[in-house]
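fyi for ur records
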Amino acid sequence: MSNPSPGTSSKAKVGSSQPSETSFKRKRGVFQKDLQHMMYGFGDDANPLPETVTLVEDIVVEYVTDLAHKAQDIGSKRGKLSVEDFLYLIRKDMPKLNRCTELLSMQEELKQARKAFEVDEEKLATLE
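which gave:
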């Protein structure tokens, strides 16, 4: 009988930030249509191979999941997760950081425009 060496184990590391493949199940294909359109927009075929779309989906989901786990680790030190945790993680990737800040400012502008529109509707309703 040969015993495995003490350094090797078939179990995932307990403190690892990478979840094991069996720790969660996700529905595959949720983003397939969106990814097909994005791939076409970036120069791929209008109908890319399903295997290609599945691979891109796996890569994207893995990246976003990893980023969310890292942001959660950062946010847990303060007790809550915030947008700034994500911005901190992408701070060295200037194109991503610039795009995120642009989208966040557009979101704020839309929020203010909706609020102003609701106020205008309320004024009209009181005048009638």
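The chain has a mean pLDDT of 83. thats all i got for now
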